[in-house]
Amino acid sequence: MKHRQAHGRAIIAAVIAIGTGGAALAAATPASAPVAPAATARPAGRLPGYSADRNAYFGDLHVHTGLSFDAYIFNVRATPDDAYRFAKGDTIGHASGFNIRRSGGPLDFTAVTDHSEYMGGMREANDPSRPLSKSPLVQGLFSPDPKAIRAAFDKVVALSHAGQMPKEFSAPDVAGRAWTDVKAAAARNNDPGRFTTFVGYEFTSAPDGRNLHRNVIFRTAKVPTLPYTSTMSANPEDLWRTMDGWRAKGIDVLAIPHNSNGSDGLMFEPTKRDGTPMDRAYAELRMRNEPLAEITQIKGTSEVHPSLSPNDEWANFEIMERYIGGNKPVTKFKGSYVREALKDGILMRETKGFNPFKFGFIGSSDTHNAAPGSVEERNFFSKVGRSDGTPAQRGSIPPGGARTWPADTPDSAHATGPYQAWGASGLAGVWAEENSREAIFAALRRKETFATSGPRIRVRFFAGYDLPDDLAKHTNLVHEAYAKGVPMGSDLKPSPSQGKGAGKAPKFLIWGVRDPNSGYLQRAQVVKGWVENGVAKEQVFDVACSDKLALNKTTWRCPDNGASVNLTTCEPEPFKGDVELRTLWTDPTFKPKQRAFYYLRVLENPSCRWSTWDAIRNGTPPNPTLAKTVMERAWSSPIWYEPKA
Length: 645
Hints:
about 20% helix; about 20% strand; 13-stranded mixed sheet; four-stranded antiparallel sheet; about 650 residues; globular; alpha+beta
């Protein structure tokens, strides 16, 4: 009991510390060498909670409401205002007839990102007072029957991919009414200092069904009259050029690609969309408009695929290998996962002088229930309204009311639809001075961001040459790290070419703090990619171990801490894992002339997957074809080591 009470006190101290720049660590860590204190006074005009050393804020930048054509077909009628209420902790209704609410605390920021294609069209098609309701396409679109819902969705998607959707569904007046609702809801719910909203939408390009979707996020309330949609052009390059035009008119904006795992190699392909070679202008256009990538969400995690990184024991995490919105298998994994893209990017930078894949990371949910942040394993109700709102529909309990699983249970993740392969993920994290549109957007732009698979794990990642060897023990280590290094999302230049420090290896500050409402941390890792003899390579280093276990610096692996889960109750084994993992690490393989990137990955102890929770509540065994546990995690944006100009 004393151990657990002490653990609880450490949680409070560590969470306060990492969110406020480190000053509160005195409660958990003895002071070391005295250093100048961080500024504590709030400058005039700043919001409550302001910190020059930046706070962690959590949000969801991928949220659909009944204004999206697919969500409306899924029987979702919730509005953007409902989505913001849910994000702030309120209860809303689910399309299946029950109430939903997040069990965790409110989010800090949210963007409603309804599909720009046919935005508001289905709502008007279901309104007898609107001309769109007379369209022949409307027949059969709005059934509450899941089979009819699927047929209606498939019909609209097929027509859209073929360019045969009736033009009236894209009429400016229809889209304009919906866009007005999006803007007005964002304005009503934006509460600087407490809750931030962003005006946004999704650009839903899918050539031949291969996912090239982007979420478009605006910095302020100044936005274009209407969104630019994939019905105008499915080529993201045209979207980027349009965004450049908006920016020239004072409309600041960025785009965030998502579900690269469903792109079948297209999202990070090595050429322009027309097949011509990339050049510096293309790379600058892309990175100017897309500084981030969403690497985890309900429809799978896009960090890494086991076939691309066979030496990464943790690569097989919530992998979805099907096209988005269908059951066609993905066959091309290269070009579909962010780690491989980062490697391709530094190789292009080395050989061609430009890098089109120099992006930071966020997570988000892609909820179609107007339920931002609904990514809790224990409280998971999936994402597409009436289609997957129950455990039976999700395939997490035996079919037909049976109490056991049939001996010939098919591979649910593939054979019976997509829902079983979906994960309860994710959230976007940013480090910003205050909770405002301006500060959070600036953090997104500079890539000082991180992604989590759902829990509010806080991670900080810095690199520098002059970081003190005992920095991890300092009480204001974050203030020092900003002063003497660079944070996640940044470039690290080489050490001075002359003098005592020439060619020395950088030091990396690694820091992760658990979510008090989730599991304990098991290990912190640094993922490195580098270019050697014209080839991009990678390695995963464990750098901090839980439970005072000794790191093996030959294999760069922590010993197994023995953490397990009782699959009949989902209770974790007690006294395993740490509240925080914190260390200063130097890359033993560093070479001053080798271009490289580094990012931090922090893993929790195993915990029950949502499908196991469903089974336990039903009093039946978990689906034998699904993973019973997950290791929740967080990823920092990379730091790029640039050895030369």
